[in-house]
Specification:
- It is a single chain.
- The protein is mainly alpha-helical.
- The protein has two domains: 58 residues, no CATH class; 34 residues.
- It contains five helices and no strands.
- The chain is elongated and about 55 Å long.
């Protein structure tokens, strides 16, 4: 999962607020970057957080999402009748706004 802007801010202070990945096997990788890109990484995330930052950016592009977790989230949202009614009301209001502009 990519870092949010709040997490990027936190990385400057040495903590992302995420759980430790100490039980996950890690592999070391050498990457070649343009000097300006590297300097930007140092300024934005700090030397100690570059690996975690890059891992967060790459992860959603190379790993399939956990579909069961996603489905469970959608089912929970659909079961929330009050929220669904509010969403429907909001959508219908948008349709009304669009038809008034023509």
């Amino acid at each position: 999962m990519p870092l949010t802007s709040a997490e990027l801010y936190s990385t400057r202070n040495g903590s992302t607020g995420r759980e430790s990945n100490s039980n996950i096997m890690q592999k070391q990788l050498t990457v070649t970057l343009e000097e300006q890109v590297y300097e930007g990484l140092l300024q934005v995330v700090g030397r100690e957080n570059i690996s975690q930052f890059i891992n967060g950016l790459v992860r959603p592009h190379v790993l399939k999402p956990d579909i069961s977790e996603l489905e469970a989230g959608y089912r929970a949202m659909a079961a929330d009748e009050a929220h669904e009614a509010e969403a429907l009301e909001w959508c219908e209001a948008l349709i009304g706004d669009a038809s008034e502009t023509r």
